[in-house]
Every structure is written in structure tokens, then in C-alpha cells.
Amino acid sequence: MQQNYYFTNENIFSFNSGTEFSAINRQKLFKKNQMKSWIVTRNYNQNLYFTAQQHGLEYDDLINMYDYFQNAVDVKKHHEYLRYSKLIDKHEYKIVGVDNNSSLIKRHGRTLAKVEIAPQTVGEIGNVLYYDQFGNITSKDVWDVRGFKSKTEYMHPDGHIGHEILYDYDGQPVMEITHMFKNNDNPSMFKLLNYKGKNLRFNDENELFAFFLKELIGKDHKAIVINDRPSLIAPVAQLNCKKYQYLHSIQTTDAEMAGNPKGTLFPAFAPFFTNDFQYYDGLIVPTPGQAKDINNLFPNINTRSISDIAVFNTKLVDQKVDNHLLFLGRLSPDHNLEQMIKIVGLVKEEIPEIKLNLVGYFDNPDYREKLKKMVKDLALEKNIIFKPYLVGQAKQEQFDNAKLVIDTSFGEAMGMTMVEALSNGIPFVSYDVNYGPRFMINNNYNGFLINQGDTKAFAECLVKLLKDDKIYQKLSNNASLTSKKLLDKLIIKQWEKI
Amino acid sequence: MNFFINSSYNEQNSGIEHAQIKRSLLFRKNKTPFKLLFLAWNPLLHHYLNQKNIKDIEILNVFDYFQNTEQVVSKKIYYSDIDFGVSNLKYNEEKDKNRYIVFQDNNIVGRINYFPKKISNDKQVKSVEYFDGFGNLYRVDFYDLRGFVSLVQWYTPDNKIGTEVWYSIDGRPVVETYHRKNALGELKKSGWKTISPNGTVKIFDTLSDVFLQFFNEINDKYFDKSEPNIFIMDRSDDVEEQLQLLNQPAFTALHLHNSHAGDAQKPDTSILNNNYEYSLNDINRYDAVISATHKQTDDVIKRFHPLAKTFTIPVGVIPDNHFNKKEIPMNERKFGQILVTARIAPEKQLDQLIRAIGIAKKIIPELSLDMYGYIDHSNNDIAMKKINKAIDEYNLKDCVHIHSYVQNVAKVQKEAQVYGLTSVMEGFNLALMEAMSQGDIGLTYDVNYGPNELVKDQINGYVVDYGDYKTMAQRLITIFSNKDLMDKLSKNAYHYSKRYSEDSVWQDWKVFLDFAKEDWINHKMKTYKPDITNGIQKLD
């Protein structure tokens, strides 16, 4: 029987972590194999249409909860240019451009509003912030990037968000959200207005999401839900259909303890292992190693492994740039990037022209300052280049140029960058840690696994690889070969079995 | 379109509102379109005006305009119609407070307040207070009696009103105002916004600016090159500034309903009546000024030399059918009966009328006085204290009767012989006009404006010097000592009220309307340059 697959997630961003990439990759995999599937997201996202495009998805690959209640799932893109919009009466107001990202609305010399231009557009309305006579923001219109006013946020007198009204495409209010916890922007109520003729009040977003899922999926007898987010375990659990939890991370705080009963479970997953698993048909993890460990520790849970990334094609690029290293991912302490910087410093002693591109977004500014200072202190400014988050062709170019891809993380459930490196025929060097690296990398075959924390050995290994073209060629060929065990036609077979 | 501008209309109103209603009926009769235009939000506006036979289409309220609720099909909203979005509710009625408290289990979900009996016997919903799942009061809805949510107050976590939003009939936000702390830390309205049906947003500092937007929009909406929109300021607050700033031409008029001078006894020199100070300073920025009496028109011209055209149009209108009714001769009335229907307030000085009666009663013992009117208790009840003192002084307890309200005013007017007035000043005095139209002989101080024009000395009554209640007493003696004189004065009272017949007053309006139209076509439209509409849309 042809099933309908729903991949539940919080959001799809412009900047994503591996979890979203995995869901996007899976969506493409299912689509390629003519299996009906959707990424179902909970969070409000005015730029979802744009984000979908950015990731090579069609908008109907996604179903967002707010879109659904706003009756805007099928709305097509329309260019709402500020300068031509009915929003502004130009007989009375002046539109004063500030830069490509914003314009001010002025009258008699006073600024009445600021229009933030929608990202990646030329002059289309993104957000409109309205000011009072003292310059306070009183309210804010949030426009969907498809060109319609999607919601209005009203601020409390203290500047915190007060209540929100969400509209359908025709401007009819369909939902209200209130924020009544003092000094806290979390909503205290979600209310659907005149939904199928009735108002419905919810105390939090997941309560609403559970209702949404029942409306969307409740009557679909062919539904299978794959939940990608631990935060959504509870609302998804309320569905009666077949459903699986996908675990994109290692279940314990210390990756080395993942197979040990004394390991500490991540608080976000703990409820699943102790209680919520009973509502699910099973748990899916990316590697057989992780599945084995969980089966040992939690025999009551039906755990299996299916890679969270499928490789659609592999390639070998001949013209690598010498001595070019690449790390691509979230620039966060999880990846121990201080150690990576130290390693580059050691390599530099042998190869002065060594270059590392650190590509990705920092999830906190303190960490960014810390790393930048470290690079400066070690005089590595010419060797370590920070680059912003990249997708699509720009990202591919990074792989095209990289000689080696490296990671200093102490644990990866799979490791998106590792898989991408291999499929691009680039050897991968990382610490010898659970689960992805140990699953995919064999020493001196397609890369190297270094004892965790041994930066000296890591540096020596890199120097060796960069200097010895013969070994490099062998590893590069094998990298490409290895990635074939994640080829899409193999992965889809595993999915078909659930 | 002709707009008669006021702030509101309520259960109790003053002479200005009465004058507006009379004018409205006159315009309707003469098939001349008009709208009574109100600036204040009032969920009972249509209720009170409908009771006075004013139709919805003749009412234009600012908020109604933005809410698209000028004309709606009324429906009654009951407590059971309120959808809290929560099930298994329990309703506890508190009849003494006209409300229901709504619970789910033991948690409060809302309070539903209903209109009191004097407004509705059906417990129609007046307002609803909403609580969230954590017990926070987050919003209060106020219903128009016609059955829709009109105003919503959104609350802050510390239980203050944060944002107020007026919604259209189909639930879209159309007018908004916000509260923010000012430099003194006080929470005040800090800004306004309107959202038009096609999505145009306008931002304002004050409600006055919202009114200007409204005036511009209706001026555009009803704009007609062959006929002007006429705006008549019956109350000028929040109108007088705006009407000078309209984007497109209009014909604007200030209607004086009271003395323009603060001291009506000194119309040429005393400081201006504060209500008219701004609009009189700017009088030439309007097109016309209307007074209810010739005397006031003359005084306005004499004092200001305005270039704005002056008109005299009485504010009182006596319906046609009144003149078909049989006149009641004096001998069929109660001898010695004196009447006054007025607010019992300090500026009416009714104690002086009582003193005049006290003096005259020594000669004409049959004199008696009936007073009808709400008592103004201001200034520590000074009005009533003075009245009681006069009654005691002249020992008039048995012949002065004070009534708060009269159901059938025509009946008491027909029973009386003299209508007495001792006010400091008047704007016109509809009550005196009506009493004299029932044959009551007018007796008044010589005060501006109205009494000394309604009463023609020695013809349909007597006008005595201001404050001279002793002479007023002499006139009472004169009237009640001579039955022929009484008959003559009463007949003339009937006769001269024809000055205020529908036809007569309409003729005065016609002069005004014709002037406005002539001015429109021959002057205003000759130099009119409308905004462009071509070439500004997206063309490529």
C-alpha cells in the first residue's frame, strides 16, 4: 500500500542544523522515489517559502501549522513592492530608503514606521514596525515572503510582545496569541478563531500542534509519522497512526558513554526512553552501532538504524587546492573548535601556507569572540578563515576546493559534513568517536580516526596526508566508494520497510 | 452631503442635540440629504437616536465609519452566544451586577456583563472579560447594542489596558490606540493607527488627527463637483481645527448655539465664550457663521466684521400639525398659573422668578408656579438653596411646585398662562419657544440670545431689564389684572410662533444652502485641482 509520510519538525530555517538538513534530504529522497511525503513544521516562519526554495524544495513539500490555519498553504508568490504597495498612501507619506534592507515612512519630518525589506528580495515588504510619538514600537506587521500581511504583533507598554493576530490571505483574523507572563515573551494562549465555526483555546503551542496534527493526519489511514524533533514527542504521541521517533543525536551527554548503562541521557530525550516510547512504533537512529547500543540498554524499544542522510551522487574532483582544509557546520563548542585551531597552528609549523575554512554560523557571540581572539593570539589570521553559513552552489564550491575535511567533535550520531566529504571524494579526519565516524571511516582507508583530544597526532596525520599525494589519491578514491553505502537507492529500501 | 457635527447623543442631552434633531427632521421633510455626524465612540448611539426617529442611514459616527457599521442588521447577543473556545462551561449569574461569571471546573474563563433593564429586557451582552488558561485577564470586548464586538481592550500582565482596538463588523482591526508611559511615567495614549479595507495603514499621534483623517475620507467619499459637502459645526471641539485642513474643498460653517461672548450682557466687549474662542479667532477660515437669532447675528457682525457669510436660522422648529390645533383661550386655563421648564441650575436664577411671584402675589393671590427640570446639584446645591430661601422669604411653600420630570410637556404648557424666565443667558431657549407656541405669555429678562427675540415686549409678553425682578413682578400684576390684555398677549404668542414654523425655518436654511451651492460652483470649483491618479501605479 502506498503510504503517506509526515516528517514532523519545528522549523526549516535559512540557517539549519543537521536535523533540518536530514529532513530535507529525506524529503528529496522520498520524492525521487515517488513516495508521498511532507515536512510538517510547527513554528511560525514568514520566510518559509523562500527557505524552501533555498533548499531546493517545492513549497508543497512543506506543511506549516500556521499556514494551515491561515488557509495559506496554497498561496502563490506575489511581489508586494513597498514603493507600489497600497500599504502606504504616498499622497501623505514619504518613503525614505535607508539601505537595501530597510526604508522609513515619514510625515512632516517624523518617522512613523520602518519597513524591513524581505530577505533576498528587491524592495518587497518584510516587516513593518510602527512607532508612537515617543519612538516606542507599538505594533509590527509581519508579511509572509509570498507577499501578504500574515500577522500583526502588538507590544505591551514595556516593549514586550503583547498579543498577535494572524490573518488569512484575505486579511481575516484566524488566530490570536497572547503573551501574559510578566517579562517573558512566551505565549500564554493560542486561540483559533471561527475554526470550522468555533473558537478553540489552547494553553501552549504544542497543545495547538497536537490539535493541528489530528486535523491534518487524524483521518489519514495511510499516515506514517517520522518525528525529527524531541520537543515534539508529546504532541506526536497523541496521534493514532504509525509513528517513529528519529534520534539525530547521541542519546547521552557523553558520547563515549552512549553504550554504557551509567551514561547520562540528554534531558530532552530522557522522557522518551523512560515513558513516551510506548506511544511510538519505534525509534530510528542513523547508524547500526547506535541501534545496537540502544537495543542492549532499552530492549523494550524497537530501535533500528536508517542513515539520516542519503547520498544522491558521488563525484571525484581532480583539481583540489593544495593544503586547503575545511570544516563546515555549526560553529559551536560541541565541535571543540579550539582544538581544531590548535591543530592548524601545529600544522603551520610544517606547512606555513596551510589554510582552514571554518564555514558556518556561530550560535553564540561569546564563542565567536573567543575563537577569533585565539586565532589572533596564535597569529593564524592568514591561515584560518571564518566564512558565513553557505548553502547550495556556494557550499559545493567549498567542498570542490577542499583537500581534507576535518572535525574535532567528541561525538556525532552520523555527521552530515563527513558524509558530504566522502561523497565528494575527500578524505575525512576526525577523532575516533561514536557513532558516525566509527561507522564510516576506516583508518588509512578513507580517512583517519585520531584518539580523542590528541591534537599532536591529529596535526601529524594532516601533515602526512597533505604531503603524500599517493596516499591521498588512495584515500580519496575510497572515500567516494564508502559513501556509496549511503546511496539513495539503498536508503529508500530501508525506509520502505518501516 | 450635509453634515451636522456633534460629539455624541445620549439618554439625556442638551439644547444643541435637540436643535440638531429638529433640523434633521426638517431636512428629511424637504428631501435634503444629511447626516448627523458624531465623534465619540458610543455603543448606544443608534439606540438613543433610533428612539428619536433618526434612521441609521442618517447617522455617521467616526468609529462606525471605520468599522463599516453605519448600517447593520441588528441582532441580539445573549450570554450563550459567547464562544470562549473552551468546553464544559458553568455560568453563575449575579443579577445584582448584571453579569454571569463563567467557569470551567473551578477556573474562571470569563465574565459576561449584560445591558441593564432600562436598555434591554433580554440581557443583551454589553461586555465580555476573557481569562486565559493561567487565570490572566487578557482582553475585554465591548459590544454595540446592535450586536457586534466594537471595541476590544487588550490587557497587560499587570492588569492595565495596553492596546485598544476597534474591529470591523467581520472582525478585522481597523482603529488602534496604544498606551505608553510619558516623561512623567504616566500611562497615556501615545499613538493611533487606522487600517483601511484595502490595507492602507495610517499612523497618528492623537485622536484629533484620526478625526482629520476621517473628515478627509468622508469629504472625498461624498465629493461632488455640482454640490458642496457642507460641514456644520454644532459643537466645534475636535472639528474646528480639522475642517481648516481638509485636502479637498468643502463648505464649512460655524453654528453658534450660545452667546459668543462670555458675558452675554456685554456681547461687544466681554472675553469670548471659551467654547467658541478658537473658531471665532479663525472665523474667516470657514465659509459661514450661523446664529439662531437676528440679534446675535448683528452682534457678531458688529464685533468681528467677519468675511465669512453670516446667517440667521432659528434652532427651534415647530411642526406643521401644531398650527392646525385649536388654540386654548386664557379663560380655559388655570388663572394665575406660571410655568418654567428648565434645568434647575444656578445660571437659570429661578429664585428671582420666585421673588417676582412673591411680590406680585400680594396683589394677585391666585399666582402659582410649576417648575419642571432636573436639579443641578453643583456648587453645593446652590441653585436649590437659593430657591428654598426665596420660597421661605415670601412664604410660597403652597404655590411653588418643583417637579423633576414631565411626561407630557404640551399639557402643562396648555394649562399655564405665563412662562417665566430669569436666566443669565441663553443660546435660544427651545422651551420658551414651545411654551409660547401653546399660547403661554412670555415674561423674561432682557438677555441674549433668544428670550429677547422670542418675546416681543408688550406684544406677546414682556421683556424687563436684566435682574430687575421687581419690575417683573409689576408685569405679572399688569398681565393678571387685565383679561383683555391677557387674551391679546396670548393670541400674539400663538401668532408669532409662526416665525418658527417648518416652512419659515426651511426658507432660512434654503438661503444658506443656496449660498453654499452658488459659492461652490462659482468660486470653489473654479480653482479646484484634484490629485492626479495617472502615472503613479506600477507600470513596468
TrEMBL record, chain A:
Output the Pfam families linked to this UniProt entry.
Glycos_transf_1
Task: Tell me the superkingdom of the source.
Answer: Bacteria
Q: Where is the Glycosyl transferase family domain?
A: 320-479
What protein name applies here?
Glycosyltransferase
UniProtKB/TrEMBL annotation, chain B:
- Which keywords, in A-to-Z order, does the entry hold? Glycosyltransferase, Transferase
Q: Which superkingdom heads the taxonomic lineage of this protein's source?
A: Bacteria
- Boundaries of every Glycosyl transferase family domain copy: 334-495
Quote the Pfam families the UniProt record gives.
Glycos_transf_1
Q: What InterPro entries does the entry give?
A: Glyco_trans_1
Among its keywords, does the record have Signal? no
This protein is called what? Glycosyltransferase
Give the originating organism.
Apilactobacillus timberlakei
